[in-house]
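Hi R.,

Here are the chain sequences for the assembly we discussed:
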Amino acid sequence: KAGVTQTPRYLIKTRGQQVTLSCSPISGHRSVSWYQQTPGQGLQFLFEYFSETQRNKGNFPGRFSGRQFSNSRSEMNVSTLELGDSALYLCASSPSGQGTITDTQYFGPGTRLTVL
Amino acid sequence: QKEVEQNSGPLSVPEGAIASLNCTYSDRGSQSFFWYRQYSGKSPELIMSIYSNGDKEDGRFTAQLNKASQYVSLLIRDSQPSDSATYLCAVNARYSSASKIIFGSGTRLSIRP
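And here is the predicted structure of the full complex:
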């Protein structure tokens, strides 16, 4: 099976711009979770989508949003970019979602976002 | 109190020795526990999952879970330089009606030849 794919792999934006990141899960996986990883804060949960519905959300401002399509592909959007948004954004897919005991997440390669 | 705690390291272990990585968690109701390995500049890669008390072995890796003491550990036998990476512990935690996976900040492991 093909793994989780994320596009683009690298992005450079300036403050105030917006950005959209894309994630294609492993075939058959219905849950997609997004994480932000920075050296200082580690891996921080953004949100989880399952069957096109946001099922869970982390403690991030409303500038961070996402959606999931009927084919389980997901996009994440960050509006009005700030310098502190520079990070590695990781997407993880799983068959049943974080509420299932035996559910296991598999990560994509990530998108490295740099905000200047 | 952090929900999932790990010693940030670096933990330096000689090649061929056993590396022991520890993780404690705060939610007594947690039922799923995972270890991920992350090389610098790469994404996390799943090593082990464990759900029941006791040991689970997979090749050179052994995960140990003690729910009463709220800790989970990872042992790496016959450590190799290629094991040098950051190891992330992840635990599911309950938040009102939903669960979510919480990651520790990771332990940096260095295997010295």
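The first strand of chain A starts at residue 5 and ends at 7. Chain A is about 0% helix and 50% strand.

Let me know if anything looks off.

Best,
T.
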